[in-house]
């Protein structure tokens, strides 16, 4: 509960430490909330962030100890460990599964995602979702999924062809029913699927932001029913247009037939 959150005192300021949301906020002014993601990560030393004090009109650099020091009980509860288990560990060692990290970096194991019973390798370094058992296609480029990115959920939501293992093609101008040979799927953003590969591709440290992004090696795509995709309005619109299009085409054909042979 909010009232049970530990308080960190720094000089004349007090901050509530919210491990669950990875943030701290000033007790006297909750509007001053600071995400750990936006702080300077000092490794085992903790974090630092700039705090603006409205009463004095001055900014201060606040030094924050590691979360395992500030709230060991909260960290143990959040990451399903005992307090004894996390003693002497860094935030990184608690927040990132070290066994998975070893598999990903030392053994080179790529993350996988299952899309409609087909397994894909998520390889951000080469910008590809590669089908595990289909060598007839390169798969799906993450760059091609940019058009299907949903900011609110940090996911890609797109039509998928389970036969070709590629992005499905929809005829938006003429679609009048749910596609029978396509599925609509939702998958995590590339940085969530393969954060290590993403860092390598961009020339950043391999473990950059892993504490906040997380590390998994197995994912499952969400299959979204077509009726929940918002396509119904488009189908209705196209159905209403169809009789008009037929009438226009019939009129054009009639006009062509009435024209005599060319001299």
Automatic annotation (TrEMBL):
Protein name per UniProt: Uncharacterized protein
Organism: Chryseobacterium bernardetii
